[in-house]
Structures are given as structure tokens and as C-alpha cells.
Amino acid sequence: xxxxxxTKNEAGEIHVRFDPEGGTIGSLEHAITLAKKIAQDExxxxxVHDDEEATKTDYTNFLTIEEVQGRQxxxxxxxxxxxxxxxxxxxxxxxxxxEAKTEEQRELARKAYLEAKERVRKEKINLKNAKKKYxxxxx
Length: 139
Fold this sequence. Notes:
The protein is of the alpha+beta class. Helix content is 62%, strand content 16%. The chain has helices spanning 28-42, 65-99, 103-138; strands at residues 4-8, 14-18, 45-50, 53-58. It has a four-stranded mixed beta sheet, covered by helices on one side. The longest helix is centred in the C-terminal third of the chain and has 36 residues, at 103-138. The two termini are 43 Å apart.
């Protein structure tokens, strides 16, 4: 029966090797499954030494569920803040339009108001999408 061994080197990489004398795991598939869990938890490389060639799998970029949820939550908070800023600018430009005395000032304030109105619309869509994305991560 084949015996496999999971080791970790100085660089932190996880290795799965055939070891007929000191191996404790009976099958290669089981050894790979265990090593994969370890590599994902430690966010490191998994190297499987099988049939004279090594197969490397990189688990350094995988995020945990908590990290993904945290990022999505921050994205929702940021979208809410952006919407608040856009609404404040809309209010500011609306008042500037009302207080404009000359036709030139009115036209400039009107353009700024319309741009702010468009920004509010875009920020509402952005917030809606962020909330959907956050809800899909939680489920």
C-alpha cells in the first residue's frame, strides 16, 4: 500500500510526497485533500510530488468568507457615503441656481445642478448593486 506524507518547508510551502517508510496517509487523493485544506488555511503553495514531476497550486490569493463579507460590507458603506455626498452637492447647486442673479450664473448653476442630479442617479444605482452583491455573499 502506498504511503504519502505531508510536509512543510522553510518557505512555508506544503509538500505531498511518497514516503513508503514514514508516510501515514494511505491514498494520494486523501493526502491532496488534507494538504489543500492546510494550504488554503495558511494561504501558501501546495506542491504535489507525483511520478517524478511536481504540480504546484497557488492558494496565496484566496480570501476567506469573512474577508469577502468584510470587503462587501465596506463597499456598501462607501456607496452610501458617495450617495450622501452627491445629494449634498445636488442641494448646494439647487440653492446656487435659485440665488443666481445673472443669466450667465443661472446657466452655470443649471449645468452643475444637472450634473449633480446625474451623479445622484448613478450613485443610487451603485448602492443598489453593492447591496445586491453584499446580499449574495451573505447567502
